[in-house]
Amino acid sequence: EAQVTQNPRYLITVTGKKLTVTCSQNMNHEYMSWYRQDPGLGLRQIYYSMNVEVTDKGDVPEGYKVSRKEKRNFPLILESPSPNQTSLYFCASSSGGGWSNQPQHFGDGTRLSIL
Amino acid sequence: ILNVEQSPQSLHVQEGDSTNFTCSFPSSNFYALHWYRWETAKSPEALFVMTLNGDEKKKGRISATLNTKEGYSYLYIKGSQPEDSATYLCASYGGSQGNLIFGKGTKLSVKP
């Protein structure tokens, strides 16, 4: 089954404790992206990757890192999480490169709470 | 940052009503317009991706039109059903390849 898998689904942690949210897709998609969803603000793009070893900042990259060493994986790293990073996070992937006319496939989301 | 606006913010209709909502985006440097349906406690699901001015796409009772010259897209739902209740998101690309900007969505509630 074609899917985007995020882990963990839920996480409660404390300020400053490094964490990684994994994202994996099995559709051989070139493009992958991370979003955060906050009430009243909608989905905002954090980082995206056009292909292996190619990553770029979205609209809200501060406090996050990403890597794309393999085509299927695109982990989101919070080196020193802070309470303002408490949010619902989505990973997505699509075929084609930038400005693609292909739809994005979303993972199930990761709810992060940082105390 | 490119601004993608959606209106109305929320909409309450009765079962059987037809409804429509709007997505506005800057018309310059247009590449593609995405529509997604997002049910509570689930993840967004793609409805349409539209690229050509005047394009019209349809999936069952849902259809969408695109005007790239004036920078807007309409989403129509004919004969709304309770299962259509969801938030409908549109998105367009920003200045950089891969930078997809979402609107804040229109939340539709359909009463039986």
Structure write-up:
The complex is a heterodimer of chains A (115) and B (112). Chain A has 115 residues and is mainly β. Chain A contains no helices and 11 strands. In chain A, a hairpin with a 2-residue loop joins strand 5 and strand 6. Chain A is globular, with a radius of gyration of 13 Å. The mean pLDDT of chain A is 94. Helices cover 0% and strands 53% of the residues of chain B. The model of chain B has no long low-confidence stretch (mean pLDDT 94). In chain B, strands 2, 4, 5, 9, 10 and 11 form a 6-stranded mixed sheet that branches. In chain B, a hairpin with a 6-residue loop joins strand 9 and strand 10 (100-102). Chains A and B meet through strand 4, strand 5 and strand 10 of A and strand 5, strand 9 and strand 10 of B.
Major β-sheet profile of chain B: 6 strands, mixed
Distance between the termini of chain A: 36 Å
Shape of chain B: globular
Task: Give the amount of beta strand of chain A, in percent.
Answer: over 45%
Mean pLDDT of chain B: 94
Whole-number radius of gyration of chain B? Answer: 14 Å
Order of SSEs of chain B, N→C?
A: EEEEEEEEEEE
Q: Percent of residues of chain B in helical segments?
A: under 10%
Coarse structural class of chain B: mainly beta
Helix count from the secondary structure assignment of chain B: 0
